[in-house]
Amino acid sequence: MSEPSESDVNLGEEVYKAMLADILAARLPGGRPVQQRRLAEQYKVSRSPMRHAISRLEGEGLLIRDGSVGLVIRTVTLKDYLDSLSMRELLEPEAAARAAENAETEMLQAIAAECDRLAGDTAPDPEAVWAFDNALHGYVAARSGNPFMAAVINDMRRYTTIFERQLPVVRAKPGMHEHEEILGALRRGDGEAARQAMSRHLVVVREGVLQNY
What CA–CA distance (Å, rounded) separates 148 from 153? Predict the structure, then answer.
């Protein structure tokens, strides 16, 4: 079998990102069979870049083998969610404390400006709220200064995001007040306040999901 061309690899990366976004947003729901030809038609690519995207997503655990139907989109169970959130509760407060001491001012200001915009919108676009959530938590993970910690947090956030987004009652992603507290601590460079604010936020997230599950 010939090696894929550079253009196929690049296109495969684009398809991977598109499929990942659709999985995280529950537009590709858990349990759905992965039919390569149909997905290639859906994403308007040939089979080669689609194979690249599927292989990468399987390697990351978002596609799994089901003996009865073959490859399927991973279903994130409540146990998966709670286990992932527990890992975040262990790591993310520490990451927030470190991020407060390792601020990137311009990026932090942009995230804070978006927080203010969303807080002032009585009916914000849920997709914009999720994008903000990703930006803030991604910033905290990245600015922790520990790439291993950041990788685990980002992996765990994938599972919690998939689970939360498949629940209509939490799809609007409330929690702006807790986010404002986290941002305030980050902007002040107060590591302990950032740690506590992140811890409180994750507790509220857990309680909200369990109440509405």
Answer: 9
